[in-house]
């Protein structure tokens, strides 16, 4: 019977947008994007265990504050599991335990990573063999960032961010993330971006930014990538959280090669040219922001996958 199946744990990564080009609002309320995602080594682990009824619990790892995470039917991991069960005709409830390392409402797609990990874990538990494309299609119904949580590595995202094409990259990139105690709501940041643009705004279209990011990734140059980082939501995020302007400057002053708001913010991503340089930036920033708000990570890393049980 289902309750005898062993628990399955899957892991999915956070993301940073190396480029986030925001186009016009579409009729469905989403914006057309051209973005470059990179998966980084902050992870969410989701463990699914057969249970009498559906449920979810959450734990913060490494000091992550999980107080903003819903534990009801709106939790993205739970929604993902129920969506897959519904489509596959599975009637075997699970309890999901989410171990979060990714800041909540931080612009790093933590909730999307939970959904991606839940899809992969449930697919394995129920023996469905849905495949990456099938899971990504389900993931897109849950959120624009979920397909990338499944794919991982580095990819160009178009549409509302759910249509992915892998990007060639060389080597690893080393990041420092400056977390913010307050989150930012993604819809609010997009709305502020629209408000600032005004009704007369016209999309300038392709402007060479994507090509610059792709060339830096192909060449494995942190310096070139730092120069190419850009985010059309940054102005809106800084308008809603004005201290971010100072955080970006402090990161550069601390020796980062480049600084960018991560996605819809408020996390700030600082690019450095080695793991040692990242540690130096942390040391330089600690007096101003405190060690508790600083994380180092590298990318690219793989997308959602089952963690094998240690024998
Ligand atoms: C900011 C990014 O993280 C960049 O990767 C994503 O665009 C946001 O992805 P996400 O959090 O998975 O977003 P979703 O759950 O799909 O959408 C949340 C809300 O963000 C806004 N949204 C999101 C994606 C998009 N292409 N256009 C939008 O305008 C919409 O108001 C939407 O209702
Ligand atoms: N499993 C979950 N983990 C975190 N937040 C969740 C989860 N399920 C639902 N949410 C809700 O989604 C909101 C956004 O969560 P998330 O941490 O994914 O933000 P984000 O990283 O800014 O997202 P993105 O970068 O994809 O825009 C939270 O404020 C919370 O209310």
UniProtKB/TrEMBL annotation:
| Database matches in SUPFAM superfamilies | GHMP Kinase, C-terminal domain (SSF55060), Ribosomal protein S5 domain 2-like (SSF54211)
E.C. number, please?
2.7.1.148
UniProt-recorded Gene Ontology molecular function terms: 4-(cytidine 5'-diphospho)-2-C-methyl-D-erythritol kinase activity
Identify the Gene3D superfamilies for this entry: 3.30.230.10, GHMP kinase, C-terminal domain
GHMP kinase N-terminal domain: residues covered: 75-152
Which parts of the sequence bind ATP?
Answer: 103-113
Instruction: Show the active-site residues.
Output: 15, 145
Highest rank taxon of the organism: Bacteria
Query: Which pathway features in its UniProt record?
Result: Isoprenoid biosynthesis; isopentenyl diphosphate biosynthesis via DXP pathway; isopentenyl diphosphate from 1-deoxy-D-xylulose 5-phosphate: step 3/6
Q: Report the catalytic activity.
A: 4-CDP-2-C-methyl-D-erythritol + ATP = 4-CDP-2-C-methyl-D-erythritol 2-phosphate + ADP + H(+)
List UniProt keywords, sorted A-Z.
ATP-binding, Isoprene biosynthesis, Kinase, Nucleotide-binding, Transferase
Q: Which Pfam families match?
A: GHMP_kinases_C, GHMP_kinases_N
Q: Domain named GHMP kinase C-terminal: which ranges?
A: 215-289
Under InterPro entries, the record lists: GHMP_kinase_C_dom, GHMP_kinase_C_sf, GHMP_kinase_N_dom, IspE, Ribosomal_Su5_D2-typ_SF, Ribsml_uS5_D2-typ_fold_subgr
- Known role: Catalyzes the phosphorylation of the position 2 hydroxy group of 4-diphosphocytidyl-2C-methyl-D-erythritol.
HAMAP family referenced in this protein's UniProt entry, alphabetically = IspE
UniProt cross-references to NCBIfam families, sorted A to Z: ispE (TIGR00154), PRK03188.1 (NF002870)
Q: Which family does it belong to?
A: Belongs to the GHMP kinase family. IspE subfamily.
Its protein name is 4-diphosphocytidyl-2-C-methyl-D-erythritol kinase
**What is the source species?**
Kineococcus halophytocola
């Amino acid at each position: 019977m289902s309750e005898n199946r062993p628990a399955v744990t899957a892991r999915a990564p956070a993301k940073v947008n190396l480029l986030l080009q925001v186009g016009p609002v579409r009729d469905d309320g989403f914006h057309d994007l051209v973005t470059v995602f990179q998966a980084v080594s902050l992870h969410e682990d989701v463990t699914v265990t057969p249970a009498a009824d559906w449920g979810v619990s959450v734990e913060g790892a490494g000091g992550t504050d999980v107080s903003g995470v819903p534990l009801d039917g709106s939790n993205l991991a739970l929604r993902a599991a129920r969506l897959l069960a519904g489509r596959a005709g599975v009637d075997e409830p699970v309890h999901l335990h989410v171990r979060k390392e990714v800041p909540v409402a931080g612009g790093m797609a933590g909730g999307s990573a939970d959904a991606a990990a839940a899809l992969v874990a449930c697919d394995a538990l129920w023996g469905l063999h849905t495949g990456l494309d099938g899971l990504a299609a389900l993931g897109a119904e849950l959120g624009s960032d979920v397909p990338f949580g499944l794919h991982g590595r580095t990819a160009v995202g178009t549409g509302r961010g759910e249509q992915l094409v892998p990007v060639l990259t060389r080597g690893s990139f080393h990041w420092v993330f400056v977390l913010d105690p307050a989150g930012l709501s993604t819809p609010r940041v997009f709305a502020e971006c629209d408000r600032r643009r005004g009704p007369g705004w016209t999309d300038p279209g392709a402007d060479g930014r994507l090509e610059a990011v792709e060339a830096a990734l192909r060449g494995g140059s942190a310096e070139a990538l730092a120069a190419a980082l850009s985010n059309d939501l940054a102005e809106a995020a800084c308008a809603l959280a004005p201290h971010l302007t100072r955080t970006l400057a402090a990161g550069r002053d601390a020796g980062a090669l480049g600084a960018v708001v991560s996605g819809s913010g408020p996390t700030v991503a600082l690019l450095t040219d080695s793991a040692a340089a990242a540690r130096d930036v942390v040391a330089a920033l600690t007096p101003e922001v405190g060690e508790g708000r600083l994380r180092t990570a590298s990318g690219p890393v793989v997308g959602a996958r089952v963690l094998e049980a240690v024998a």
